[in-house]
Every structure is written in structure tokens, then in C-alpha cells.
Design goal:
By secondary structure, this protein is α+β, with helices and mostly antiparallel strands. The protein is built from nine helices and 27 strands. The strands form six sheets. The protein has a nine-stranded mixed beta sheet with strand order 15-12-11-10-9-8-25-26-27. Strands 16-18-19-20-21-22 form a six-stranded mixed beta sheet. The mean pLDDT is about 90.
Length: about 475
């Protein structure tokens, strides 16, 4: 009888014979959290027979593993996906799948389709009925820039997927002819020379109203890309594949961290931003200037569209056991400085792993990086854009203001490997059992014995065992 179990210890291998050492000849490297099909009746001296999930060709590896290295519970897996110049993150743990952003293209759709097919192969291999769809408990869109949301339109339109809640920051992308400030909302100037902007998108009812109006049009009078996204969400609800849509905002930095539900028994997502300008009343969020426009003679320049949409990114800290992971969207320098001023102390932003803001832009605040102080940083970027991310100062500062002597800096773009016949995308993995985090990326020429470059956090260096 085969049962589903998961690898709970880093540095584990599936070996050819019971009692063999990890990494011995013919052994198969296993990442923390890997699913195995275990023969429950094969227990002998603490070793059990197990088989990996079949690959796309139907091949699987069989061997033996110590029973103490296995868990009945699915552990945390985070995939920082390579979608080119954009962000897309897939998070899985016991009882839940969560998405943060969807990239600019069909890359995320393709990866989710592969994930569904992998789970279908895994189910049928153990005699379970093949699941027809992949349920995604929550989609969080940090902000509505194309490189963060456009890839979700195809996902929402596909009957391969069902969804719980879509969360967002409330700033729609109005069309060219809309009478809206910065094509985002309505700006108001305050007595202290600061600015705030309205949050016009709330739920699916406001989405339907926006789609039905004429405010989401291109110059040619056609629906813009944001309208197509909203229409896909509305259609998904009509078809019974999406439950609801909600504005995600924090009103009081001194209050208990707001969280959202239905993300399984072990994951907690703390909402750190966007941070509203008032604790009560209508929800408005800050409108930010381009920091390069700030001068001694003009300390409060007019807001910038890009800095307002990016600076109000949804910021989340995922807590899993004793481990934490920060997702900062495209936060920029004025937004990070604003959050620092409102929070007073940035201890809420400290994390073991940091998803770097804005793909590695130079537009960051050092106090923010110092507060996060991670063991590892992940940059998500592509080489098909005009921004040249990640930039050297962003990577250097990320490493300098990390913990320990051997901070880890990962890049989806640098991890990508190309050849004449194929592209191996640079997905970065984070795995956790609640106590230990393993960061991994695939080797350019993987072998059975060593498929991944794998680092347990905090990383003590390549020769730590010799000291």
C-alpha cells in the first residue's frame, strides 16, 4: 500500500539500498518538501521504499529513505518563477495554493498548467482519481502594472483553474480618455503638502461597473488591457470558478497585523501595505512623487503615476512556523521612507527571505533594506526589457545589508540557461519545514545525484563543515 509523504529534512536523498549514505552512487537528490509515494509495509530498520512523482515521460525513481526524514504533512514550497521582466510567485503548503502576481505574459499560465499535469500524474500513479482542475485559494496582485497582472488574464479565463479570492491595492488603470488623475483615481492635496489618491476598485461589483463604463478604453475606443483582466475575473465568477475580489489595505500600523483567511492551517500572511492615510473614513492611500523631482526649493513635487502605483504595492510577510518571507512588490524609495515614518520602527518588515522590490531597481531606501536584513534575497527580472534590472547597486546593497558572512542573492535572470535547442528557466525555490529554510536553483547540467544548487539558511559558507 502506497501513501503520500513529504521530505522534511534538508540534504535528503533517495538511495539505491537501505543504509546507504546520502549522495552515494545512484542516489537521487531530494529537495525539502518533495512528494514521495511510500510503501508503508516496507519498513525495515527504519528505512522505507519510496518512489518519486513520475516526470513528463512517465519515469520515476525508486529507492529507500529513512522514515524519520518523512512527514505526512505537505510543507511550504515557494517558486519564484522566471517570467522575464516581471513578477510571479507560486506558494504551496498544506491545504492551500497562493499566487502573488502573474507576470506579463503566458509564462505563468504555462507553469500552472505544468503544475496541474504534475499533480494529475502524481494522483494517478498512486491510484487516486485525476483531479480535473487546480484550485488557487488566493491571488494577490501587488499592483496593476502589466508585468505583475497581465499574465493572470489568461489564467482567470481558463477552466483548468478555480479561485477563492483576488486581493489588490485598489488602484485601477483607467483609460486614455478617463477624467482621472494619473489615470489612477482622484488626487487630493493636504495641509501638510502631502497628497492622497482614491481607491476606486473594491470588489467584483465595482469591477463590473468599471467594465460597463467607458473609462477603461484605449485611444481607439477598445477595452484596455486592465478592462480585459477585469472582464476575465467577472466571467470567472459568473462561471462559478471565482468566489470574490477584495481591496487589501492596512489602516493602522500600530494595530494587530491584518491577515486573510483560507490559506491553509500553517501559512499566515501579514498585510503591511498599502497603508491608508487615515485610520477611519473613506480609504485613501498616499500619492508619491518621483524622488528625483524633490529639491530644496520644491520639497513636495506633484505625484508621479509610476511612483504612486508602485509605491502602493501590496506588501506581505508570510510566516510559516519560525520562518518568514517578505514580498514587497515594486515599492520605491518614497514609499519605503513613508512606511518607515508611519511605522516608527520597521521591525515588522524583518524576514529570513526577501523578494527584492521592483526587480532590482536603484529606487530603494537603505533603511528599508537594513530593517528587512534577510539571509537570502531573490531578484525577479528579465533581459527583454529596457530597465537592465537587477542593477549593480541594488544587488550590492541587498548583500551588504543581509545577515551573516555568506548572504545569498538569487536572480531568475542569472539562473536562466539557454542553448541552441532549449531554455531552462531560472526558477528559484524556497522550501521550509517551519524551522529550516532551503534555497535552491537548478544546476545548468543536472545529474541524478546533484540536480540542485541547494543552500540551507543561514548559509555558513561552502567549507563550514571543516571548521
Amino acid at each position: 500500500m502506497a501513501i503520500i509523504q513529504y521530505v522534511k529534512e534538508p540534504g535528503s536523498f533517495l538511495v539505491k539500498r537501505k543504509g546507504m549514505k546520502n549522495g552515494s552512487s545512484g542516489s537521487k537528490q531530494l529537495l525539502l518538501g518533495a512528494r514521495l509515494h511510500v510503501d508503508a509495509n516496507s519498513d525495515e530498520d527504519g528505512w522505507v521504499a519510496a518512489t518519486t512523482v513520475p516526470d513528463t515521460k512517465g519515469s520515476a525513481h525508486t529507492g529507500f529513505i529513512e522514515k524519520t526524514k518523512l512527514s505526512d504533512k505537505q510543507l511550504l514550497k515557494i517558486f519564484y518563477l522566471d517570467v522575464g521582466q516581471g513578477d510571479a510567485t507560486l506558494i504551496e503548503a498544506e491545504g492551500a495554493i497562493v499566487i502573488i502576481d502573474g507576470g506579463p505574459n503566458s509564462g505563468f499560465f504555462n507553469e500552472l498548467t505544468k503544475r496541474l499535469k504534475s499533480l494529475q500524474r502524481a494522483d494517478t500513479a498512486i491510484g487516486l482519481p485525476e483531479r480535473p482542475t487546480l484550485h488557487i485559494n488566493a491571488i494577490i496582485i501587488s499592483h496593476f502594472d502589466l508585468d505583475h497582472y497581465q499574465g493572470l488574464t489568461k489564467i482567470l479565463a481558463s477552466n483548468k483553474f478555480t479561485f477563492g479570492i483576488i486581493y489588490h491595492n485598489g488602484l485601477p488603470r483607467y483609460g486614455e480618455g478617463a477624467d482621472k488623475d494619473l489615470n489612477l483615481g482622484s488626487i487630493r492635496k493636504h495641509g501638510d503638502d502631502s497628497y492622497s489618491i482614491s481607491t476606486d476598485l473594491r470588489d467584483l461589483d465595482t469591477a463590473k461597473t468599471l467594465v460597463a463604463s467607458s473609462v477603461l478604453k484605449t485611444k481607439n475606443g477598445n477595452p484596455n488591457k486592465f478592462a480585459k483582466f477585469l472582464q476575465a475575473a467577472v466571467d470567472a465568477q459568473t462561471e462559478g470558478r471565482l468566489d470574490t475580489m477584495e481591496l487589501l489595505v492596512r489602516r493602522d500600523p500600530a494595530s494587530a497585523h491584518p491577515t486573510f483567511s483560507d490559506t491553509g492551517p500553517d501559512m499566515t500572511f501579514e498585510v503591511l501595505a498599502p497603508l491608508s492615510t487615515t485610520k477611519t473614513g473613506p480609504i485613501r492611500i498616499p500619492a508619491f512623487p518621483d524622488p528625483h523631482d524633490v529639491t530644496i526649493s520644491n520639497p513636495h513635487p506633484s505625484p508621479s503615476q509610476s511612483h504612486t502605483i508602485n509605491g502602493n504595492s501590496v506588501v506581505l510577510r508570510l510566516k510559516y512556523g519560525n520562518n518568514s518571507f517578505l514580498f514587497g512588490g515594486d515599492l520605491n524609495q518614497p514609499a519605503q521612507a513613508y512606511l518607515n515614518g508611519r511605522y516608527g520602527t520597521m521591525s515588522a518588515f524583518a524576514a529570513d527571505v526577501n523578494k527584492a522590490c521592483h526587480h532590482g531597481s536603484s529606487d530603494f531606501d537603505l533603511d528599508y533594506l537594513k530593517a528587512v536584513a534577510p539571509d537570502a534575497t531573490v531578484f525577479s527580472s528579465g533581459d527583454n526589457g529596457s530597465h537592465d534590472h537587477p542593477l549593480p547597486d541594488a544587488m550590492g546593497a541587498a548583500a551588504k545589508h543581509s545577515r551573516g558572512d555568506f548572504p545569498l542573492v538569487f536572480s531568475t535572470e542569472l539562473a536562466r540557461e539557454t542553448s541552441k535547442t532549449a531554455i531552462k528557466f531560472g526558477h528559484i525555490n524556497a522550501r521550509s519545514n517551519g524551522e529550516v529554510i532551503v534555497m535552491a536553483q537548478k544546476k545548468e547540467k543536472p545529474s541524478l545525484k546533484k540536480t540542485w544548487h541547494s543552500f540551507a539558511l543561514p548559509f555558513a559558507g561552502p567549507f563550514a563543515d571543516q571548521h
